[in-house]
């Protein structure tokens, strides 16, 4: 069970929210506030960076991807550029694979991250494909920072399917883990700190509601018991081997 049951004060209404959906809400909230900054030092020292954010760099990236994928011919041109570069030794096959650019899709929770990640991977070739959508070094730097921010959400979502038996207790602890990583990231990504705060606030709101329910207490207790059991089993087996 990936979701968490939330109950109203009279416990008559039951609301289920799946883990990826809540993560997506936090991501979209952060992206909507990506152009905001409330640090006067950053406003003075990084005007160009902030202007790139305010230009909606994610939309510019999306336009480039859409242009490169506009037809089968353009997709084939991009593939040919990659293969030609490999043959000429401009890049190694293991460094730049013959893959296509990815669109972001509403129904795919990590699609914006995957779109930006693939664009940055293929940018040298996609730039040569359509120069009118060229991105400068600062724009690429800002996109790389946004990818870094989105990677936290992507990685934590990947951890749930990786579990053989994903449980509510594991999901709750992943929320806690994600929030802590995002808070730590504000030092590394100061220009995105406001957006990060907005994402964290959304996650905190959800966790605050979940902590009011008996389900939360049960899940945490269950997780503690599982850890204790696994530790005892591991200790027991290691003792036998000794």
From TrEMBL:
Domain of life: Eukaryota
Keyword Glycoprotein: no
A single GO BP: regulation of transcription by RNA polymerase II
Transmembrane segments: 214-232
Protein's name in the database: Uncharacterized protein
Annotated GO CC locations: nucleus
Keywords, in A-Z order: Membrane, Transmembrane, Transmembrane helix
InterPro entries: RNaseH-like_sf, Vacuolar_transposase_reg
SUPFAM superfamilies, A to Z: Ribonuclease H-like (SSF53098)
């Amino acid at each position: 069970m990936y979701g968490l049951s939330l109950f109203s004060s009279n416990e008559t209404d039951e609301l289920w929210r799946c883990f990826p959906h809540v993560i997506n809400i936090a991501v979209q909230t952060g992206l909507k506030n990506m152009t905001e900054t409330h640090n006067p030092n950053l406003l003075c020292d990084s005007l160009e960076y902030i202007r790139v954010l305010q230009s909606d760099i994610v939309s510019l990236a999306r336009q480039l991807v859409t242009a490169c994928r506009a037809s089968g011919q353009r997709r084939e041109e991009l593939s040919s550029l990659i293969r030609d570069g490999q043959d000429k030794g401009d890049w190694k096959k293991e460094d730049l694979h013959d893959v296509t650019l990815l669109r972001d899709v509403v129904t795919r929770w990590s699609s914006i991250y995957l779109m930006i990640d693939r664009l940055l991977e293929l940018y040298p070739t996609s730039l040569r494909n359509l120069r009118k959508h060229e991105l400068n070094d600062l724009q690429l730097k800002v996109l790389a920072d946004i990818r870094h921010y989105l990677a936290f959400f992507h990685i934590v979502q990947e951890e749930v399917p990786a579990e053989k038996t994903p449980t509510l207790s594991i999901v709750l602890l992943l929320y806690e883990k994600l929030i802590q990583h995002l808070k730590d990231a504000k030092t590394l990504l100061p220009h995105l700190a406001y957006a990060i705060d907005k994402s964290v606030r959304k996650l905190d709101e959800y966790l605050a509601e979940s902590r009011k329910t008996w389900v939360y207490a049960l899940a945490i207790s269950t997780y503690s018991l599982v850890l204790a059991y696994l530790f005892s089993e591991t200790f027991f087996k290691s003792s036998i081997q000794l």
